[in-house]
Amino acid sequence: MSLDSEPRASASVLIASHWLAEPLCMCYFPFVNSMKKIAVIAGDGIGKEVIPQAVKVIEATKAPVELTYLDWGADRYLRDGTTVPKDGFEMLARDFDAIFVGAFGDPRVPSNIHAKEILLGMRFKMDLYANVRPVRLLDASLCPLKGMEPKDIDFVVIRENTEGPYVDRGSVTNEGTDDEVAIQEDVNTYKGVRRIIRYAFEYCAHNKKADDTRRSRVLMSDKSNAMTYAGGLWQRVFKEVSAEYPQIKSEHMYVDALCAQMVRDPRQLDVIVTNNIFGDIITDLAAGLQGGLGMAASGNIHPGKTSMFEPVHGSAPAIAEKNIANPMGAILTAAMMLRHLGLTRQARWIEDGVLEAVRQKKTTQDIGGNLGTSEVVLWSTKSKFIAYVGDPDFHDGAIRKISRNSDELVVEVEGSTGTRFAVRFVGVESVISYNPEEMGLEALVEMETVAPSRRFVFVNWLEPEDQGGDAKLQIIARDFSVEKLMADG
Ligand code: NAD
Ligand code: IPM
Ligand code: MN
User: Fold this and answer.
1) 251 vs 201, 238, 242, CA distance in Å?
2) What range does the domain containing 25 cover?
3) Global pTM value
4) Pocket perturbation via mutation, ligand 1, pick of 49, 308, 315, 358 by most ligand atoms within 8 A of CB
5) Ligand 1: which residue has its CA nearest to atom 4?
6) Other beta carbons less than 10 A from residue 75's beta carbon
7) What is the DSSP letter of 116?
8) For the CA atoms of 153, 159, 164, 165, what is the dihedral angle to 10 degrees?
9) Please, which residues have CB less than 5 A from ligand 3, an ion?
10) Which residues have C-beta atoms less than 6 Å from ligand 1?
11) Are strands 471-486 and 420-433 parallel, antiparallel or unpaired?
12) Residues involved in catalysis
């Protein structure tokens, strides 16, 4: 099963700069054969604001993607009665590598029929059985709990996405009388339960936390003390599947107790697997731990099939068209989608940009800043990068030499076909190396602050895991230039 674990690239270098996005980079921009095709459906309400902003960020990464916009949503439905055009799901599965979605829900469509047909339609008809909802605290200031640091909250909810009460099966008898009975069926199949629990264990085995430590436990949450038929199946299958993964600790909590645990002490949580309805509810609660619904990302995944990515939040009609919606959930969702498509460096670039914006409070009001939706994005795309500097075949490159004199820092880079160039940074404000010993960069970490205005340049150096994993260098400088560029033969 191929999950969202990060593929390791061989030695490679990413130098990102806004400045480099101009003509020069045309020579070095990677013309990758495999353009990833993405369908973009902004939908309703704040979906129409946050998705275009997240698209700007995707475009700023120069990721090799081709975006196609689809107008599915309330406006279209009210205009011509269409929720999903004929063969819409077949078209998505056939013509696209991924789908990037905003939200559906509009007060003008009280039945919510379009949301049901489009959103739940994609999940069910495209069989996107795993709803992956990471819960990661980016900065202590975002958490309503006392004393929580980013290392304390880094878990993921794997929500079953094709069964449960969401199949919307049931009946109403004696409607409108005192004897009315409404039955909503909760469907749980052996195959459905087994594949989502397996997905959770596979996710645990193949994905690390943000601090690079391994994931090690899977917690299944249900309500088997009251709902015994479904609970019995979940309990039995969980035991069965967990036996296949002896290296992973398996745990169980009733969903009510899990809610209490989440807001009292979420530090022990790692991978949570649960059914459709509980997964829906606990991920809004978990979003609260990250700074609110505006921060939460998700992917609706079927390994090997066209998958769909959407922020956890809805269309939030009350705050729509005011330029105040937080775009970070959508932006982090874009990163999740790019990583799923194998565009790992672009995904990291986005995540690092969000982190930097959050730390500097260059955010919307809901998480403590004073910027509008579009200003947040402008800040994060302008204050840094972006271009790949490597060779035209995009075989990446390696940092060959780093030297420093007064406030200058020169990074020499060599592409795999021998292209060499040097990037000269002036007014270096800070250098962060995540792996200083390996890179011999200790001295650089102490670089002084010299510039009030900043440009952000990101150099990323990936190595195979057996050679020590990632080394990463992040430089914030007033300006930089490419000193020499020598194409090889
Ligand atoms: P909601 O997520 O839209 O909003 C809940 C609360 O969070 C509101 O106070 C809202 O202002 C706030 N909020 C949400 N996203 C935010 C953001 N990005 N920035 C700042 N604040 C944000 O949920 P709701 O109010 O229950 O539902 C509104 C509509 O959205 C309904 O029609 C619902 O069915 C639909 N909905 C759709 C999806 C989806 O398409 N994936 C998800 C949830 C809800
Ligand atoms: C979500 C939403 C949807 C759900 C609604 C809009 C049907 O709340 O994606 O979390 O319940 O799954
Ligand atoms: Mn929800």
Assistant:
1) 12, 9, 9
2) 1-29+387-489
3) 0.79
4) 315
5) 316
6) 16
7) I
8) 60
9) 280
10) 46, 50, 103-105, 112, 115, 119, 293-294, 310, 313-316, 318-319, 325-326, 329, 366
11) antiparallel
12) 166, 223, 256, 280, 284
Domain C-terminal end among 267, 291, 315? 291
Give dist(CA 413, CA 489) in Å, integer: 17
Q: Which atom of ligand 1 is nearest to the CA of 366?
A: 20
Q: Quick one: 135 and 281 in the same domain?
A: yes
Give the position of tokens 């969000």: 354
Tokens representing residue 337 in the block: 């989608």
- Are 161 and 266 contained in the same domain? yes
Question: 391 and 246: one domain?
Answer: no
pLDDT tens for each residue of the chain, 489 residues long? 444 443 323 222 222 222 222 222 222 333 344 799 999 999 999 999 999 999 998 987 778 999 999 999 999 999 999 999 999 999 999 999 999 999 999 999 999 999 999 999 999 999 999 999 999 999 999 999 999 999 999 999 999 999 999 999 999 999 999 999 999 999 999 999 999 999 999 999 999 999 989 999 999 999 999 999 999 999 999 999 999 999 999 999 999 999 999 999 999 999 999 999 999 999 999 999 999 999 999 999 999 999 999 999 999 999 999 999 999 999 999 999 999 999 987 888 788 888 888 988 889 999 999 999 988 886 665 434 322 233 333 334 556 677 877 678 787 766 556 667 677 777 776 665 544 444 443 333 322 222 223 333 444 443 333 333 344 456 666 666 665 544 443
Residue finishing a domain among 337, 352, 384: 384
